[in-house]
Amino acid sequence: MTQAxxxxxxxxxxxxxxxxxxxxxxxxPYQATAGPLTIEAKVAPGMGQVVVKLALAGREMGKHLxxxxxxxxxLNLANDEATATGKIKLELKAAPHFSSLEAxxxxxxxxxxxxxxxxxxxxxxxxxxxxxxxVTQLDATLTANTTVRGVSANTANFEFLFQxxxxxxxxxxxxxxxxxxxxxxxxxxxxIAKGAKITLAVPTEIGPGxxxxxxxxxxxxxxxxQISASVANIAWPQVAAPQRVSDEARExxxxx
Length: 256
Fold this sequence. Notes:
By secondary structure, the protein is mostly beta strands. The chain is built from 2 helices and 20 strands. It has helices spanning 3-8, 17-22, and strands at 13-14, 30-34, 37-44, 49-56, 59-66, 72-79, 82-91, 98-109, 112-124, 130-137, 142-149, 155-162, 165-173, 178-180, 185-187, 190-192, 197-201, 209-218, 225-234, 243-246. β3 (37-44) and β4 (49-56) form a beta hairpin. The protein is elongated and about 70 Å long. Mean pLDDT is 92; it is low at 1-9 and 249-256.
């Protein structure tokens, strides 16, 4: 079995929470406090997602990703003699309306109680909210990345990455599910033949969907290889119960 065949036998995978959180590293934070409790929020308006970092009495209590499918945190935190309870909720609105991150929390320390209730951040919504990030390694240097958007997962932004750099992109939607790249794609020693095609099958409440890729490519280390495979296995977006954050919580567990 060739290296290319081994790589193509791998399934597309959903990015872990930690991997998604890395997208937010360079963003400036919003901040709110309630005595010993500090709430720091980094917002990606174009993704409809927020990373919330909590600290209580100087101890970090984890980073948490909020989005359409997981919009709310329920806090029950303790550190030394400090405690914090309450909720933090992402209120997503359709563009061009304003979305917001709201909190209703209270904290105690040294016999005193501190409260915060209100808006931590607000921003004008841009585009459809992200409901999934997927990656498929096609060979050692070529990756297929897919970002799925919309409350019914009916839009897929697809791109080829060669050595970590985007070299071509397409977007498939429920109304235009088949997209064909009109030109040959060349970058360094990568060559993808004209006519690379993606096809979106939108999920339903009773069955998953997928983004299907068809293309022919080669590199210096991979001979001419035909791809006909799913690069994103898409579940119907369901809004989960609130994430419960206790003093044992730590930043992002992987999710698929």
